[in-house]
TrEMBL record:
One of its GO terms (biological process) is proteolysis. This is Papain family cysteine protease. The keyword Iron-sulfur does not apply. SUPFAM superfamilies: Cysteine proteinases. Residues 39-91 form the Cathepsin propeptide inhibitor domain. It comes from Tetrahymena thermophila (strain SB210). Belongs to the peptidase C1 family. Residues 115-322 form the Peptidase C1A papain C-terminal domain. It comes from the Eukaryota. Residues 1-19 form the signal peptide.
């Protein structure tokens, strides 16, 4: 048989197989009146608008598939979140852009922390307000600024209204292995801050984009703040909680399923994989308290509680800025 005919036949079979797979997959998702009612309420709540009816129909299909995941949840922590019109790949591409660490990396010593320990830097007034990274994979920058903000508040140099500039890190720390909205490392952002200092959000506003040239000038952008050192916390849950007693800690986690998190104590994640950077701000009632960068309309007013132990790899890569 002619080679081109063979190739054509192979491609046709592949396309037919893909179409058949999608048809079978969609047969399992019923978009009935109850789903469309939830969809309408969800759109109104989150002020969702789509460019045309075809695109909205596609988003409704994605929403319905995600809704099935929520309905089948056995953890009690899933709910109808603002991310339910996104596929897993879209969520990862927009919101999970930490430079990923893989199973061959060291895993923290995982010892259950004494549940009687009570640390809550939010209640103590030493944590700045929850922010939103928007549609930019800049979690690494938000983790770094949040850790420095808390360190400055605890040191008495600022109050909790402080908001440092993530955009400065996006635009200016490329030489430190960071790639703006595409990917980055919280620890390398801290290295940049130690060398150059960082100004406020007001001086260097957040744009959710990484296409502009760095324009930071520490002689003009006043105030600006620096750190004297960076502490690498030993990869151990016990060492992590001891560091947390001093101040909040910048950590890396597996947030693959955080798209669905609505509230409660979460544990549906891997201990060896990281794709998101956040700020650990407490350990209370036997659970870790984590400040995220998805806005206050996600999770528990912008926070998530993680199960005791090395849940989501929280203890694998902890860092603290030293003022």
């Amino acid at each position: 048989m002619n080679k081109s005919i063979l190739i054509f036949a192979f491609l046709a079979a592949a396309l037919f197989g893909s179409a058949l797979y999608m048809a079978v997959k969609k047969q399992h998702i019923t978009i009935d009146e109850s789903v469309t009612k939830i969809w309408s309420q969800w759109k109104q709540k989150h002020n969702k608008r789509y460019e045309n009816t075809d695109y909205e129909s596609y988003r409704l299909e994605v929403f319905a598939e995600n809704l099935e995941v929520v309905k089948n949840d056995q953890t009690g922590t899933y709910g109808i979140t603002k991310f339910l019109d996104l596929t897993d790949d879209e969520f990862a591409g927009n919101f999970l852009n930490l430079k990923a660490q893989y199973p061959e990396d060291s895993i923290a010593e995982d010892i259950e922390v004494d549940p009687k320990i009570n640390i809550n830097w939010v209640e103590a007034g030493k944590v700045s307000n929850v922010k939103s990274q928007g549609n930019c994979g800049s979690c690494w920058a938000f983790s770094a600024t949040a850790s420095v903000e808390s360190a400055l508040i605890i040191a008495g140099k600022v109050d909790k209204s402080i908001s440092l500039s993530e955009q400065q890190l996006i635009d200016c720390s490329g030489d430190y292995g960071n790639y703006g909205c595409a990917a980055g490392q919280k620890e390398q952002a801290l290295v940049y801050i130690k060398r150059y200092s960082i100004t406020t959000e007001q001086n260097y506003p957040y744009t959710e984009k990484d296409v502009q040239k760095c324009y930071f000038d520490n002689t003009k952008h006043i105030p600006n703040y620096t750190i004297s050192d960076i502490k690498i916390v030993k990869a151990s849950t016990n060492d992590l909680v001891e560091a947390l007693k001093i101040q909040p800690v910048a950590v890396s986690v597996d947030a693959t399923n955080w798209k669905y998190y609505k509230g409660g104590v979460f544990s549906d994640c891997k201990t060896y994989y990281h794709n998101h950077a956040v700020l650990l701000v407490g350990f209370q009632n036997g659970t870790w308290l984590v400040k995220n960068s998805y806005g206050t309309n996600w999770g528990e007013n912008g926070y998530i509680r993680l199960k005791n132990g090395n849940t989501c790899g929280v203890a694998n890569q902890p860092y603290q800025p030293i003022i």
